[in-house]
């Protein structure tokens, strides 16, 4: 089948139309995870403990995968296999002595013969796939090495993109969600909220909860939005943390300059920067103790797994001692900002400079 969308797949699942191979990707990570859970539910019901195998794409063994695919289901109609974040560009965490083309070829051969009792799901939540837009259809076309795997899914199963929804689409969903909670919001204000949250569905959900708690059965006005909602930036906070980790002064200050455009929420900017470094500190401590991404995600109740994966990646370039020093600098900055002593932008620039000067 050609590339499709979550709505179509959900309609198929309701009819009992389950494919043997799915490849799910897109910038709307919560939707990727939600659709994955719905497919698993359709395949194995409440028997995940017996009928579901979860595999980390970075350590995928194709021989082991073949054996799993051929297994008969236990206590359910289907045997289900979920493979998270297999990246055809770099199929293994350690590629020493290995070629991506050889590993990908073996995987494709294994997937060409999936028996009718098995459902294999590939989903991407922790890395970005290189795509280009087909302006005739509006869909994203994968242009890196992951295209071969996604093309196979489109041919024998389902290739599903979960794109970020438009502000108009989100506005209708926001208005419905607010109304269900007994509050009011106009479509114009709903679009404003979507724009402030950069169409990030998880952020929007959290903001709706906060706003409805504040207004009760009243109306969410533009004034309420401006007072309670932190406007998201196009430059993500973990990119600033990544630049500091790499001692990249130019990238660090470019990110900070972009973040500082939000003059009304500079203290919130500091809170998010601090959060990024705390994420990296947790990841570094976990790595030292031999823990993995899923351990940290579960222990600290992270919603998005890719944030933990980014923290593991970025923290690999920083010692625990250096991370502690950066967090101490951020703590002192927070005290300074709360005391009202000086210009926020200048103080944050000094903070980034101090962190860039720390040593491993």
Automatic annotation (TrEMBL):
Reaction equations catalysed: DNA(n) + a 2'-deoxyribonucleoside 5'-triphosphate = DNA(n+1) + diphosphate
BP GO annotations: DNA-templated DNA replication
Transmembrane segment boundaries: none
EC number(s) recorded for this UniProt protein: 2.7.7.7
Stored PANTHER family: DNA POLYMERASE III SUBUNIT DELTA
Protein family according to the UniProt entry: Belongs to the DNA polymerase HolA subunit family.
Protein name, entry field: DNA polymerase III subunit delta
């Amino acid at each position: 089948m050609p590339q499709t969308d979550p709505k179509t797949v959900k309609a198929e699942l309701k009819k009992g139309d389950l494919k043997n191979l799915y490849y799910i990707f897109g910038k709307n990570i919560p939707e990727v995870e939600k659709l994955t859970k719905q497919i698993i539910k359709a395949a194995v019901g409440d028997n995940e403990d017996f009928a579901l195998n979860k595999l980390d794409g970075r350590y995928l063994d194709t021989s082991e995968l073949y054996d799993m695919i051929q297994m008969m289901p236990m206590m359910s109609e289907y045997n289900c296999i979920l493979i998270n974040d297999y990246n055809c560009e770099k199929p293994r965490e350690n590629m020493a002595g290995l070629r991506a083309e050889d590993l990908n070829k073996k995987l494709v051969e294994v997937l060409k013969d999936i028996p009718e009792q098995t459902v294999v799901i590939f989903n991407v939540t922790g890395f970005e796939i290189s795509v280009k837009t087909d302006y005739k259809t509006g869909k994203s076309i994968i242009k890196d090495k992951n295209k071969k795997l996604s093309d196979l899914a489109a041919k024998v199963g389902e290739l599903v993109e979960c794109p970020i929804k438009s502000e108009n689409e989100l506005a209708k969903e926001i208005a419905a969600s607010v109304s269900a909670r007994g509050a009011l919001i106009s479509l114009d204000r709903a679009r404003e909220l979507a724009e402030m949250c950069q169409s990030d569905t998880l952020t929007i959900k959290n903001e709706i909860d906060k706003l409805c708690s504040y207004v009760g059965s009243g109306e969410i006005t533009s004034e309420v939005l401006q007072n309670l909602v932190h406007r998201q930036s196009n430059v993500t906070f973990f990119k600033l943390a990544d630049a500091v980790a790499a001692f990249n002064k130019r990238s660090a200050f470019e990110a900070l300059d972009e973040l500082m455009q939000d003059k009304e929420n500079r203290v919130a900017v500091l809170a998010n920067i601090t959060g990024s470094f705390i994420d990296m500190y947790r990841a570094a401590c976990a790595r030292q103790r031999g823990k993995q991404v899923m351990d940290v995600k579960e222990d600290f109740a992270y919603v998005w797994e890719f944030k933990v994966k980014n923290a593991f990646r970025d923290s690999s370039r920083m010692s625990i001692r250096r991370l502690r020093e950066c967090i101490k600098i951020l703590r002192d900055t927070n005290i300074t900002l709360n005391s009202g002593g000086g210009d926020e932008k200048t103080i944050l620039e000094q903070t980034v400079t101090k962190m860039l000067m720390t040593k491993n």
